[in-house]
Specification:
- The complex is a heterodimer of chains A (211) and B (179).
- With 211 residues, chain A is mainly α.
- In chain A, helix 2 packs parallel to helix 8 and helix 8 packs across helix 10.
- Chain A starts with a helix and ends with a helix.
- Chain B is mainly alpha-helical and 179 residues long.
- Classes of the chains: A mainly alpha (211), B mainly alpha (179).
- At the A-B interface, helix 1 of A face helix 2, helix 3 and helix 4 of B.
C-alpha cells in the first residue's frame, strides 16, 4: 500500500498540464486530407488513364471507385478510433470497415458479372501489387507515426486497419491511372493482396504500437 | 453511480489542466475501483499490487487520450483490461516455457535405463555439480515439490530470477546428459 501511495505521489508530481488529443473524427479528417493531396500529386506525376471520363460513366467502375474511396474513409476513421484505449466509446463505428469491405466485395462481384465477355487481362501481374504497396508506404508510415503517439489497446487491429487505409490510397491511384478493364486481374492483383497486407499490418501493429 | 462517474470525469478534466489535487484524488479512486476488479482475476495480492501500479502508470501515460467529455470508467477499464491481458499472457507463456523445460527433463527420466547411461542417480549427481544456487533451486522444486514462487520466498530471490536460474540449470543438465 505504501508503494502505491508513493507511486501516486510520483505520478501526481509528473502530472503537469496535458493537451487532450484531437477527436478521432478530426484525426481521420487530417489523414484523409493529406491522402487526397498525396493522391493528387501521384496522379499528376503519373497521369490519369486516358479513358477515365468514359469509364466513370460506367456504373460498376464508378461504384468500384466510390466503394474503394469509402474503404479509405472508413478505415481511416476506424484506425483513428483504434488509437484510443476505449475506441473513443464508438465501438460500432470502429467496426464499420467490415461492412464497407462486404459492400466492396458485392460491388466487385457485380462488376465481374458485368464484365462479359471478360476483358483481356494485361500482360503484367504482380507489378500492380508492388506499385500499390510502394505508393502506400508513405501514408502507412505517417499513419503509424501518428498512431504511436496514442495508446491503442487493440494493436493488431489498429495496425491492420491502418495498413489497409494506406493500401486503399495506392489501390485508388492505380485504378485511376492504369487502363485495365479486366476485373479478374483487378481482383487478383489489386484487391486480394489486401488480405496479406492487412495481416502484415496486424503484425506491424503489435510491434510498432506498443506503449 | 452516475454521480461517481461524473465526478471521475470532472476530476480527470481538472487533472488535465494541471490540478494536482484532483489528479491525486482521481488516481486514489481509480486504484480503489481497480483493486477488486484485479483481485477477482488474479490469485495473489502481490500480483494485484504490481499490476495495479502498472495500470496506474499506463493511465498516466495515456491521459492525453481522454478529453473529459465522455465517461471515464470505460476508458479506465479498457486500459486495465489491456494490461491484465498482457500480464496473463506473459504469465501463462512463462508457465508454458517452464513446463517445456520440465517435460524435456522428464523425457530423459522416462528413457529406459537399460538403453541409456542416464539414471536418477546420475541426474542427482549432476544436480549436485551445479552452482550452489541452481542446485538448491532444483532440489527444492523437484525433490521437495515447492513452486517457483515458494522457492523465491524461501531463499530470498525474485520469482522471475528463480525461474531464470532453473531454466539455466535445465540447460546445463540437458547438455551434460546428452553427452
Amino acid at each position: 500500500m505504501g508503494n502505491m501511495d508513493e507511486l501516486i505521489d510520483k505520478l501526481v508530481q509528473d502530472g503537469t498540464t496535458v493537451k487532450p488529443a484531437h477527436h478521432p473524427v478530426l484525426l481521420s479528417l487530417e489523414w484523409i486530407a493529406a491522402a487526397v493531396f498525396y493522391l493528387a500529386v501521384a496522379l499528376m506525376l503519373s497521369g490519369f488513364r486516358p479513358d477515365l471520363m468514359v469509364k466513370l460513366h460506367e456504373p460498376w467502375f464508378a461504384a468500384e471507385i466510390a466503394a474503394l474511396a469509402g474503404i479509405f474513409v472508413v478505415t481511416s476513421l476506424s484506425a483513428a478510433l483504434l488509437s484510443f484505449p476505449d475506441l473513443h466509446q464508438m465501438r460500432r463505428v470502429a467496426l464499420a470497415p467490415a461492412l464497407m469491405f462486404a459492400l466492396f466485395a458485392l460491388v466487385m462481384l457485380f462488376a465481374w458479372r458485368a464484365d462479359s465477355p471478360p476483358s483481356q487481362p494485361p500482360v503484367h501481374s504482380i507489378e500492380c501489387t508492388l506499385s500499390i504497396t510502394l505508393l502506400a508506404i508513405l501514408p502507412a508510415v505517417w499513419i503509424f507515426f501518428v498512431m504511436r503517439k496514442f495508446a491503442s489497446t487493440h494493436q493488431y487491429w489498429a495496425g491492420g486497419i491502418a495498413i489497409l487505409a494506406a493500401f486503399s490510397v495506392g489501390a485508388l491511384w492505380l485504378r485511376l491511372y492504369e487502363p485495365t478493364d479486366s476485373i479478374m486481374h483487378v481482383i487478383e492483383w489489386h484487391y486480394l493482396p489486401m488480405i496479406l497486407i492487412g495481416m502484415i499490418g496486424m503484425w506491424l501493429g503489435k510491434s510498432l504500437l506498443k506503449w | 453511480m452516475t454521480d461517481n462517474t461524473d465526478n471521475l470525469a470532472a476530476l480527470m478534466k481538472q487533472s488535465l489542466t494541471g490540478d494536482q489535487r484532483a489528479y491525486a484524488a482521481l488516481l486514489q479512486e481509480t486504484s480503489r475501483l481497480l483493486r477488486p476488479f484485479l483481485a477477482k482475476r488474479l490469485n495473489f495480492t502481490s500480483e494485484v499490487d504490481d499490476l495495479l501500479q502498472e495500470i496506474l502508470i499506463s493511465i498516466h501515460k495515456a491521459r492525453h487520450t481522454y478529453d473529459g467529455n465522455r465517461p471515464y470508467k470505460p476508458w479506465m477499464y479498457a486500459i486495465a483490461r489491456f494490461r491484465l491481458q498482457d500480464h496473463l499472457r506473459a504469465h501463462y507463456s512463462d508457465q508454458l516455457h517452464h513446463a517445456d523445460d520440465l517435460s524435456e527433463l522428464e523425457d530423459f527420466l522416462h528413457e529406459p535405463v537399460t538403453e541409456s547411461a542416464i539414471s536418477y542417480e546420475s541426474i542427482s549427481g549432476e544436480v549436485e555439480k551445479l552452482p550452489e544456487k541452481q542446485a538448491t533451486i532444483l532440489r527444492l522444486m523437484h525433490q521437495e515439490g515447492y513452486t517457483a514462487r515458494e522457492v523465491a520466498a524461501k531463499i530470498g530471490m525474485k520469482e522471475s530470477a528463480v525461474k531464470v536460474a532453473a531454466h539455466r540449470a535445465y540447460k546445463i543438465l540437458r547438455q551434460k546428459l546428452e553427452r
